[in-house]
Task: structure prediction
Amino acid sequence: MEGNEVKKSNTPTLKLNYKRTFIIGFAFFGILLLWQVYDSWCPTFLTELFKEALGAATIEEVQYLVGIMMALDNLAALIMLPIFGALSDKTHTKIGKRMPYILVGTFCCAVAFPFVPVFFHYHNLGGTIAMMAIVVFFAMMYRNPAVSLMPDITPKPLRSKANGIINIMGYIGGAFATVVGIVFVLSSYLGVDSSKWLNGTANIWLIEAPFLVASVLMVISALVLFFLINENKVEEEVKPEMELGEKLAQVENSVAHDDEKPMSKANKIMLFLILGAEFLWFMADNGIGTFMGNYTLYYLHCETSSNMINTIVGGVGSVVGFLIGGILAGKIGRKWTIMSGLGLTTVALLIWLILSLSIPVTVPSEGYNSFPIYLYFIWAIKGFGMSLVHVNSYPMVVELCSSKKVGRFTGFYYASSMAAQTITPVALGSLLLLESFSFQLLPVYSLVLVAVAAIIFMFVKNIKIKNEKVKKGLEALDIDD
Result:
């Protein structure tokens, strides 16, 4: 039997199918590829367009508008992700319940995405915003179903390890976008003080290429997933393993298979605590992520390619965390793995704040400054820490539901993260309007939020996997064909 093997003995075991999990990861590959390009370029596009439209003297004056626009995208996601998750739970087709949304959403998103830089190049604010909105709608159509596909066919005790693999595939997608961003440099397109873009001498291909590459790779990743994973067939094959996984779930009370039966009070409290802490750590991480490109270009006065390299460094730290996050959770539990990640992130942000206040930034007479070396180390630590958080938090949420509600609970998870990402660009953009709060204090914002998230998460009950039931060590590395 393909998949996770159940031994016919008194002590049945589960074994993760690595090959199939990597293939499922192509869906997340396309997701992070898209958002890496979107988050790296679009805030700067909006900054320049709003500054031009309003005749603003400084970029700080329009950051609250940039924050609002980025927040509106996330607000739309907050509404649509639970809807498409619940819809896909109830969908039944010859190609599966998730696959129709993945294919339609990916194709439409890939067609619209390259038009975002085209409208920006021609100084069309309305067109740029409209294309961003179209991209977000179709991205949300496939995001929840794509993410739900992993827990659909992976037993609960194995989902942290599987989620680590899925996230590694996603970060490979993000790395593709980042490498392209290093080759096609946004600051070279704009010129110093946006002179090339303003006078019409900018080369459009410097910003068009990353969006085209992202679109092509998104389509390829969706086709790989479609042709190599028969969703209906695999779901039928893994039913025995899924039933065993329910018995070994890391929950205080067992989850009812009856869709009409409400959650137990203990599980409901656990869900609210996880989602509350998740909301805060996403506010922290997404806040600095949204404005890091502008921080690099407008505050540090460095080339945008430097931020791309920094993103890769953070991604490497994240991949290491994804590789060991599931293993660590099996030893000390998901709660303390997440707490360790939040602790490391707090340390990284604190070091960044101290160095930011200690080392002055000068405006170069010409060209750009060198990117601060210490930020590479900070981003690696932060990436590692947050990967321990992300690799375990999503499995903790879908652990609390039956297989019939995976899409709905995935919607809860993303509703919390998207609510955070809706609020945080506006909140941080508004703070930057204050004379007492500048880009220099960027780490303060995230530092406070991560600390509060850790306090809330402390109240989550720690429940470890019954390790004797799950294959481990070299035995767990077996890969089924």
Remarks:
- The chain has a mean pLDDT of 83.
- The chain is about 70% helix and 0% strand.
- Residues 94 and 339 are 42 Å apart (CA to CA).
